[in-house]
Every structure is written in C-alpha cells, then in structure tokens.
Specification:
By secondary structure, this protein is α+β, with helices and mostly antiparallel strands. The protein has three domains: 1-35, no CATH class; 38-147, 2-Layer Sandwich (60s Ribosomal Protein L30, Chain: A), CATH 3.30.1330; 160-315, Phosphoribosyl-aminoimidazole Synthetase, Chain A, domain 2 (Alpha-Beta Complex). Helices cover 35% and strands 25% of the residues. Strand 1 and strand 2 (39-43) form a beta hairpin. Helix 3 (68-85) runs parallel beside helix 4, helix 5 packs across helix 6 (195-201) and helix 7 (209-215) packs across helix 11. 45% of the residues are buried.
C-alpha cells in the first residue's frame, strides 16, 4: 500500500497504533497526545502545549508568488492557530530551515523579519532552531504554548473529543477567503492590493478566542486549517457524534462572495481550508458568553447530532444534503 492510498489521517492513525503497541504515545504526565491539534502536559504552575508544522516549497507555498517575509509570518501563524485551538497562548518557538545552498542570505533575512513580525503580533519568542541543506526550501516550526490547570491539576484546554449531543457549533470570522486568495495567486495576482491573497499569505488566528473559550466553560474546539467540513469531521470522530452545518449560516468571506457565484463561494468556504479560524462546540449559553467576550465575530453554523456515521453534513434551508466534491485538504492524497 502506498501512503497516498492510506491518506494523511489514515497514516496518523496507523502510526499512533504502532507507537501504542510499543508503549509510546502515552504517559502519566501526558494529558493530550497524538490525534489533536497539539500535545499537552502538566508543567510547573500550568499546562504546556506543544505543536509543530512544516511548510514545503511549492507544496504549502508558491515560491514564485510568496515573499520570504510572508513565508516567515505564515510559518509561525499556522502553529499559533494550533495553540489557540487548544485554548492556550503561544510561548517559545524553534525554527528548522532546510535550504538549497544557492538561496540568497538576504532572502533568509527577510524570512526572519517575517517571523519577528509574527512573534510581535502573537506574543511568541524565537528560542533557537537548526539549519540543514535540502533540494527545496522547507520551514519547520515547533511552538510551545501555555494554559492553566484546574483545581485537581488537570490542564484547562480545548479538545476535539469534547463535543456532546445537542451542542451548537460556531466559528470565528469568515471562511473561504484564503482558498480564494490561493486561487488568485495561481492565476497571476501579485497580491499587493488583494485582501483575499493577504488572507492566504498572512493568516491571523483569533489569538484571544481560545483562552476566552476556556474561560466561558467550553471544552471542544479545532482550528479550520483543512476545511470546515473536514475539520469538523475530526471533531465528530473524536466525539463519536455527527454534525449538521446549515449552508445559509456559513460566514462566507465578503470578498469571496463578491468574486464568484454563490455555489462556488459556499464550496470554498466549506472545504477550502487555511482560514485558521477557531471552530468551537458547546452549550448555546456558553457559545453566547464567548461571543460577548471576544472582539471577532462568532457565528453559529450547526449542531452536533447522533447518527450512525460520525461525519459532518452540509444542509440547505430545506434540510436537504448539499454534496460537495472536496472534503478538504489531505497532504498525501492532495
């Protein structure tokens, strides 16, 4: 079997099972392990969150259309999104650069300028890293975050498996803009005055929303990185529930809504990915409390239900299923 046949998430499950068979992936100190947005363990005086992400040239960014400065920003921002999705605040980062020898030193300077700008915006600190030679540029960033502990010493974090039947589902901001921005870049837009392109190049995760969700009593969240329906599907499987999403409630990016016909705008908003917004699920009163506590829009888009298949479904105003041709991004299947 090829990894493309198994897919990214099937491979993650397989490796988790292999590690478990060797006594790995579990520890008395580890509160959250493989299968969530980040790992979590209890530290001195609080919980430690740890995540990592990799950006590969012409896989995760278009080298001819992405500036080194924007690449640096995005490398940190996508990891910040994972920490936010766990309900934490970003802390220290390690950066690993894999570079072809012919890359200009000034380009690397710009990469780190972008990293520094993102650190200032999100409250993180670059603490070190590694540099190696490679045939293409690869940026891997590992980020730690911090969260609180409850009275019994358990980490106060958000989990994919924390949803319950009847919980409402809400998402911050708007969706589909980043996917539309990537399309525009591929079509030759330089992005200088295109807000959609900027959403793709310089995502801004809702930094305060994760900790505010914890404070509001919510315990279930995920970031929208691979597409609304696919990421919500992870919540469904971890919580052993299904979800319905009401198409007319999905908050479509206004720039996207103005750029394409309605059906295509909905498809990109539901499946496009890289929005790095926060999706939460919980009782309506706690969702309302979160909406009052944050300065970004929070839109209720659906609810958690009991069904045989633990998947997310998109419904029209009449309650009929809307079929979409792409479930979301999978690194190995494409």
């Amino acid at each position: 079997m090829k990894v493309s046949e198994l897919g990214e998430f099937g491979l993650i499950d397989r490796l988790a099972e292999l590690l478990a068979a060797h006594g790995q992936g579990f520890s008395d100190r580890l509160a959250v392990g493989i299968g969530d947005d980040a790992a979590v363990w209890a530290g001195d005086g609080g919980a430690v969150i740890a995540t990592t992400d990799t950006l590969v040239q012409d896989v995760h960014f278009l080298s001819e259309r992405t500036s080194w400065r924007d690449l640096g920003w995005k490398a940190l921002a996508v990891n910040v999104s994972d920490v936010v999705a766990m309900g934490g605040e970003p802390d220290f980062a390690l950066v690993t650069l894999a570079l072809p020898p012919e890359v200009d030193v000034e380009a690397v300077d710009d990469l780190y300028r972008g990293l520094a700008e993102a650190c200032e915006a999100f409250g993180a600190t670059i603490a070190g890293g590694d540099i190696v030679r490679a045939p293409v540029t690869v940026v891997t960033l590992a980020l730690t975050g911090r969260a609180g502990l409850d009275g019994s010493g358990e980490p106060l974090v958000l989990r994919r498996g924390g949803a319950r039947e009847g919980d409402v589902i809400a998402v911050t901001g708007t969706l589909g803009g980043a996917a539309a921005g990537l399309r525009a870049l591929r079509e030759g837009d330089d992005g200088s005055d295109n807000a959609l392109v900027q959403r793709h190049l310089r995502p801004r995760p809702p930094l305060a929303a994760g900790p505010a969700a914890v404070a509001a009593g919510l315990r279930c969240a995920i970031d929208v990185s691979d597409g609304l329906l696919q990421d919500l599907g992870h919540v469904c499987r971890a919580s052993r529930l299904a979800a319905v999403v009401w198409a007319d409630k999905v908050p479509i990016d206004p720039g996207l809504a103005n750029a394409v016909e309605a059906g295509e705008a909905l498809r990109l908003a539901a499946t496009g990915g890289e929005d790095y917004e926060l999706l939460v699920a919980g009782p309506r009163e706690r969702i309302d409390a979160l909406a009052e506590a944050i300065d970004v829009p929070l839109t209720v888009v659906g609810e958690m239900v009991i069904e045989a298949e633990h998947n997310a479904r998109l419904l029209d105003a009449s309650g009929h299923a809307i079929e979409v041709d792409i479930a979301g991004w999978d690194h190995l299947r494409g």
